[in-house]
Amino acid sequence: MYILPAIDISEKKVVRLTEGDYNRVKVYSDNPVDMIKEFKSKGASYLHVVDLDGAKYGSLVNLDAISAIAAEGGIFIEVGGGIRDEEKIKTYLEKGANRVILGTVAIKNFEFTKEMAEKYGDKIAVGVDAKNGKVAVNGWLEDSGIDSVEFCKKLATAGVKTIIYTDISKDGMLSGCNLDIYKELCKIEGVDIVASGGVTSVSEVKTLKEYGCAGVIIGKAIYEGKITLEEALECVKY
Predict the structure, then answer these.
(1) What confidence score (pLDDT) does residue 140 get?
(2) What's the CA angle centered on 22, arms 16 and 26, to 5 degrees?
(3) Dmax of the chain from CA atoms?
């Protein structure tokens, strides 16, 4: 299992939202590149980057900032936020991203998502953002009404290699993650599950590893000192 510290970008700054609310934002750094350097110095091999403005508006708002992060090199970078057509996928891959995350488009245009998964293989992941068991879209602002677990099963049968599942109700709350949902998701065959949203402790990381999660994304808990990146990385060494 791998650990992905999260860098969420809004207006070219590193921020965190609480429960996906764009009105509840906290700025942690004015320079995303400095943040990646810090994570790399602490042993990170993977990085989860989201363009929050892009997710909201459906365009690559913070492309320059994310390109600068990718240009640092020496670390696996997955990028999401506003990627809703193949041109944007190509742009991020050309800029140095290792994996591109499709979100809203996976709900709005499933056939496109299936086609991209077939064409780009493990360079494509799908981000399933859920609240109360239903998939949310458009930067978490809209409830699709689609059952999140059933949708994950559908993605797996369509050939998607990696699903990043975020429980929005836990995200940024520092209250612990929804372990039960990941236990269920990890039973789906043929797809890697990456846990995201509310992971705050070493014990949770260890439990997610036992369940079979391929990766764990940790954001606010690192920034607020609830868990150190070094502690999280130590959990997955063996």
Answers:
(1) 62
(2) 35
(3) 42
| Catalytic-role residue among 129, 167, 171, 192 | 129
Q: Quick one: which H or E segment has residue 24? A: strand 21-29
Beta carbons of 164 and 4 less than 8 angstroms apart: no
Token representation of residue 210: 């036992």
pTM over 0.90: yes
pLDDT less than 70: residues of the chain: 139-141, 170-172
The domains of the chain are located at 2-235
Active site residue 64: no
**Interval 152-174: pLDDT, tens:** 999 999 999 999 999 887 666 77
* Phi, psi (rounded to 5 degrees) for 176: 95, 160
Residues 32 and 77 sit within 8 Å (Cβ to Cβ): no
- Within 73-201, residue ranges assigned H as helices are 86-94, 104-108, 110-120, 148-157, 179-185
Per CATH, the number for 2-235 is 3.20.20.70
Residue holding tokens 């458009």? 138
Please give the distance of CA 36 from its chain centroid, rounded to a whole number: 16
Q: Is 8 a catalytic residue?
A: yes
Helix or strand run (H / E) with residue 140: none
